[in-house]
Amino acid sequence: MATVTIDNKQYEFEGRPLLLQFCTDRGIEIPHFCYHPSMSVPANCRQCLVKAGTPAVDRATRQPKLDEEGNPVIQYFPKLMTSCSMEITDGMVVHTHRSSELVERAQKDNLEFLLVNHPLDCPICDQAGHCPLQIQAYKYGPEGSRFEFEKVHKPKHIKLGPRVMLDGERCINCTRCTRFTAEVSGSHQLTIIERGVNNFPMTPPGVEFDEPYSMNVIDICPVGALTSIDFRFKARIWEMSSAPSITATNAKGSNCFYWVKNNEVLKITARQNTEVNDYWLPDEDREGYQRFNDDRPHGPSGKTDGGMRPMSWEESYAAAVDVLETADPARVLFVGSPHATVEDNYLLSKLAGHLGADTPVYLEHTVPGSGDNWLITDDKTPNASGCERLGFNAADVPLLRSKIQAGGYDVIYVLEDDPVSSGLFDSNVDAKVILHYYNTTNATLAAASVAFPAAMIVETVGTYVNVDGHAQRVRPAKAVKGVNRTLQMEMGKSRLDQHGTPFDKWYDETKLVDCKPGWEIIPEVAKGLGLELSYRGPKQIMEEVSTALPSFTGATYESMGLVGVRLSDTPTLV
Amino acid sequence: MATNNGAQFNRHPEPTFSSDQLVFTSDEKSAMQGYLEMYPEPEGAIMRGLWLAQEKFGFLPPEVIRLVADELGIPYARAYGVATFYTQYFKQKKGTYVLDVCTCFSCQVCGGYDILHYLEDKLGIKAGETSEDGLFTIQEAECLGACGSAPMLQITNGRYVHNLTESKVDSLVSDLKDGKMPAFESVTLPQDETEMGGNRRDDVESLEYYKTPPVAETFE
Amino acid sequence: MEVAKQGTSKAGNWRDYERVLLPKVKNLHKLEVYEENGGYQALKAVLTEEKWTPKAVTDEVKASGLRGRGGAGFNAGLKWSFMPPVDDKPRYLCCNGDESEPGTFKDRQLLEYNPHLVIEGILIACYAMSITTCYLYIRGEFADWITHIEHELEKAYAKGYVGKNIMGTGFSTDVVIHKGAGAYICGEETSLMNSLEGKRAYPRIKPPFPAQKGCWNYPTTINNVETLACAPLIINKGAEWYSAIGAPTHPGPVLYGISGHVNRPGVYEFPTGMLITDLINEVAGGMRGGKKLKAVIPGGSSTPPLRADMIDGVTMDADSLRTAGSMMGTGGMLVLDETVDMVTWLKRVSHFYHHESCGQCTPCREGTGWLEDIVGRIDRGEGNVRDLDLLADLCTQMEGRTVCALADAAAWPVRYTIERFRDEFVAKCKPTLTPAGSPLTVDA
Ligand SMILES: Cc1cc2nc3c(=O)[nH]c(=O)nc-3n(C[C@H](O)[C@H](O)[C@H](O)COP(=O)(O)O)c2cc1C
Ligand code: SF4
Ligand code: SF4
Ligand code: FES
Ligand code: FES
Questions:
Q1: Mutation to test the A interface, candidates C202, C365, C387, most A Cβ within 10 Å
Q2: Under an 8 A CB cutoff, do C104 and B143 touch?
Q3: N or C: at which end does chain C have fewer Cβ atoms within 10 angstroms?
């Protein structure tokens, strides 16, 4: 096996990996800015310098030269090398700043240059706290500055487009953003303009930076030159917690972080998953996080003679049981949900089966032609695939609507969806409706007999299957009201020994939504109907699903981890 | 030092040319086609395309750069990034005659700045400015590759004027005011000066060739 | 700095030297005249004579010892031999006529007086490397010369010297003239390729080298105009003839572009290895106005300046100049007399590099401006003596740490001008006072 020696330690490698990537993968940090694994390598920031050499070869014999002790003589490259662009070869010897003062000095020197024209306005910069320039300047940079001249001025506060703001003075010209629009999204909306020290990225005049993936440049900008217009000045990074999860905007299930402060989601950023979305998110995935915070219900409600009124959870369970108990199973329609987790849908199908009703259907939410064969799909829900794999069929809305209108059903049980908006029935429908819902703007609320506020994707634990059959877990980013140990175990803690202390960014009591995940509500209803669904939590539910249903083979929480698993292609009916 | 002042930066400038003006003639279009054929990929043609447009429109405001990009079928941003990289592409309107006075390396020590300041005083404008009548723009240029005939200047990306003296500048300015562009000067090979009278090309318009100064006449 | 004082001219009997790049022929730029004087015979030979396989041509050029005239001085034939074996993919030659290095103006003269020699050289190089397209990159400022060459190239096309099926031999090569638009950096070979490709002319990292991945990612060789013009001469007269001219390790005829304070500035053709003193005093007619020599910048602005007392016995070839503490560069020699203020001069040189940095990589983008700022401050009398150390530090921080050599080219003049003319710099700095009020030479 080929080997490379980095800071006097040997590593094996295969192929011709790039040194910086190789080191990063092994936790050997080398400061860098311009390198991005998914784009071309311009090696322009010059931060990742290392000292490197290869075994010297005797010209005459073509054998490696050996020193007196029989060790290969290393011939060092005359210049320091950029590790991001250097392929490792067998026998190569590398010194990073850890074992070479020259490299340490070079990295310091480079940071000094990077900072001379940088405005150093960290106190008012959104990037501060998670800024590669700030972090690496502290770690590897010089103590002070020897620059005593006026800095170069460039345009600031420029709205490049509806979502992205530019501060040209902060830019370090790494060209990540322009490479993104040229190589990744292909929109070609950005270019570096001018020359030399006046360089900065810009759209050509008259062009808005409004491509559907524009906000990715905010994630990859290694400084605060590109910031989110929406998020600007809303919170400092250290006031927030982040939860690794997936987005729910469409069927791609792109991986993301939900950023939470005071128990409100304030922004969504991309999380790497080469199987799904690489490093990217469409802008639509990042927008609309307000629905997690706004118009959220306060506890369950139910219809009594006097109309809708708030109920306790126990009352609401009983009300639902009441409705279902007396109904003719053939006249009960279960509507599953492509918004809800596999676990919730699975429990719903068990309940339907227990009562003797038909397998649930689900409502499709597709906008034909809106997809781009990349990270935006026609399907605007995250789990239609999961529903299909559970054996649910997409509802034939006109057919079902006429059956409902003709009085074909007495009870309609709706999991986390809005069939009235979908036109499945009208709000004055005769059938009794049991509804799990997210937002008070849900049009089906008006038709509901019992309404359960449901935990959203940012508040629950569960599994989603994306359009390509990739099964992924979600984790709670914000807390809900009440004690749910499973949820609390999964939340990111400020202090590992305590649950939900006021130090946690999701703790704010005034902002706790009184809602519950489906896997907590459905078992309570089932219990009233004589069905014990006593799982220790969604993890155990998924264990059952993955063994009971071939279409979910392998989809355990352990194997899904942070990046998910690809399920086999053939969904099988229950 | 050239700086971009943030406050003044205008991302959506009013176009200078109307859409009626923003068209290429069929000759120009076929020239563009020719440029495309010179390179394996259309992007290669951008520099020639911008040159053609600058000759036609006098300078390259954004709408003209976009026109070129569209004509060549390449991204506008790419064309704009290229246009702003090079100094010879004028992004702002300039005078009819842009006088690029070399003050670089050799010219600076051979009186390049004297010529520049003489011109500035004569035309009443500073380097970088355009005279009120719109006739002249003076610019300070980097080495133009004619250091042997320093000090020198270039007129609007074209003609070189070598071995400048104040009187040469005087007649140049008055000629230009009359619309007379100086003729191409073939710079002598000094090794041929004695035997072949300079061995200058005889197929250029001007016969008043520059003669290598044999002695230090031009230096006080 | 040790000075090599003992050298003698390596240019032999240069007074009787017969010029070959710019021979004494009237109107040689015209195709007819060029033909009458043996033009395109070297091309005909390589295309028709059996002994001239492409490899044989390359080997001949390699054996001649021809070193690149664009600045780096790399063996041209060796560079050609780096091209990978022929396959069905395109490969390119770029002829570098960007000529923007301050103090350099010889390619322009060559293109003006003997354009067909360059074209013939291009074609021979294309044959040697089995290339079917050459881009002749000429800086945009040379608009008049581009017109002239286009005219002559058209004639060469019409005569069947260029284009399809050259001289009926089945060999085809196109020569395409690319017009630059004002950017020194385009002379750097990889920047030139990006410029051709219609990108912002940022230099590329090496490796991959152009011979592996050049224009449009295909194998490419880049040579200077004057380098390629030597090829027909080598074919016609042989490698031995060529390598016997001038300095043995850096042979051949070379165009010296002499500018500055001499009586007869201009482009001169002589063998390499001329004594600098001969070039100034005899060739260029001596110092203008009889003034005293102060400094010589031997090969363009990037090459370190030599103080007058450092040039005795120094000859114009790579070895001698290296020993003396400078470089051959482009052979564009600037001669400065005693009237020059080296601080002011350096300020303007630094401005050039600041203005021409492409801005791609950090040390150059930020460093060139900083150098200019500091030198400017010293020039205005506002500098401190410790600024000189800072300048040296910044040079160290730039040299060898960038994508291309422009940063080195910007740093060297600063480093060596200060090193070699330190007194002038110190004299312009603010006097530093100790608390007691007595001036110090070095800032505490
Ligand atoms: C900043 C910079 C500018 C350069 N400018 C030129 C130039 O104007 N003309 C040129 O022929 N070579 C120039 N070079 C050298 C080229 O990169 C390249 O080495 C040369 O064209 C190769 O040709 P040669 O081997 O025939 O000399 C420049 C190099 C650098 C680093
Ligand atoms: S704006 Fe950010 S991503 Fe773009 S070039 Fe500047 S530093 Fe890099
Ligand atoms: S060294 Fe300077 S000119 Fe060369 S690539 Fe870097 S920034 Fe550009
Ligand atoms: S990360 Fe290697 S040069 Fe930027
Ligand atoms: S320095 Fe002026 S032309 Fe070269």
A1: C365
A2: yes
A3: C
CB C419 within 8 A of CB C307: no
Q: Which tokens belong to C59? A: 């080997």
Say which residues have a Cβ less than 8 Å from residue C182's Cβ, sequence separation at least 6. B86, B87, B88, B89, C139, C140, C141
Q: What percent of chain C has pLDDT over 90?
A: 95
End-to-end CA distance of chain A: 49
Average pLDDT over residues C28-42: 96
User: Which candidate, A505, A506, A535, places its Cα nearest to that of A519?
Assistant: A535
- Compute the residue count for chain B: 220
Q: What is the pLDDT of residue A305?
A: 86
Angle, alpha carbons B95-B25-B159 (nearest 5°): 35
Pairing between strand A448-453 and C174-179? unpaired
A113 reaches C (C-beta below 8 A): yes
Residue C312 and residue C206 share a domain:
no
Whether residue A206 and residue B66 make contact (CB cut-off 8 A), yes or no, is: yes
**Torsion angles phi and psi, residue A123, rounded to 5:** -60, -25
Residue C371 tokens read as 């150098």
CATH topology of domain A2-113: Ubiquitin-like (UB roll) (3.10.20)
Domain edges within chain A: 2-113, 117-228, 301-456+515-537
Tell me which residue has its CA closest to atom 2 in ligand 2: A221
DSSP state of C214: -
- Looking at domain A301-456+515-537, which CATH architecture does it have? 3-Layer(aba) Sandwich (3.40)
Q: Backbone phi, then psi, for A226, in 5-degree steps?
A: -115, 115
Provide the pairing of β-strand A301-304 with A191-193: unpaired
Q: Among candidates A237, A203, A157, A248, which has minimal Cα distance to A472?
A: A248
Structurally, chain C folds into a number of domains equal to 3
Please report which confidence band the pLDDT of residue C3 belongs to, taking 50, 70 and 90 as the band edges. very low
Q: Round to whole Å and give the CA distance between A450 and A302.
A: 4
Can you read off the two tokens belonging to residue A540? 């155990």
Where do the DSSP E strands lie in A311-395?
A: 332-336, 361-362, 393-394
What residues does C307 pair with on adjacent strands?
C295
Q: Which residues on B lie below 8 Å from C144 (Cβ)?
A: 158-160, 184
1.10.1040.10, 3.30.70.20, 3.30.300.30, 1.10.3720.10: CATH of A117-228: 3.30.70.20
pLDDT-derived band at C138 (thresholds 50, 70, 90) equals very high
Q: How many C-beta atoms lie closer than 10 Å to residue C121's C-beta? A: 25
Distance (Å) from CA C347 to ligand 3 centroid: 19
pLDDT single digits (tens) C228-266: 999 999 999 999 999 999 999 999 999 999 999 999 999
For A122, phi then psi, to 5°, come to -50, -40
Which ligand sits closest to the CA of B106? 5
pTM value is: 0.95
Question: Which ranges in C65-175 belong to alpha helices (H)?
Answer: 76-81, 106-113, 115-128, 143-158
3 state DSSP class of C287: strand
Same-domain pairing of C122 and C173: yes
- Tokens encoding B61: 């405001």
Residue at C17 is within a domain: no
